[in-house]
Amino acid sequence: MLGLGESPAEVLETMDDLLSAGCRIMTLGQYLQPGLLHMEVKKYITPEVFAEYKETGLRKGFAFVESGPLVRSSYHAERHVTGGKV
Prior knowledge:
Layout: H1 8-20, E1 25-28, H2 47-60, E2 64-67, H3 77-81
Parallel strand pairs: 1-2
């Protein structure tokens, strides 16, 4: 989830860490505050930035990257486990 105060450099470093750990599927979405007792959104990430992160992730070596404001971890999960055949 993005929008909690992370820097672009931290996002890129996390991508590298995930790849080093063997992760090949990444989802990036916007954090949305579920209620007043939860952490506030620090920044709303633009769709253009999400698109840049997707391209960067694919260039780095992720097999699948879902990246957008409303993306969640299960977003298009069936495509990822079937090699894109759904």
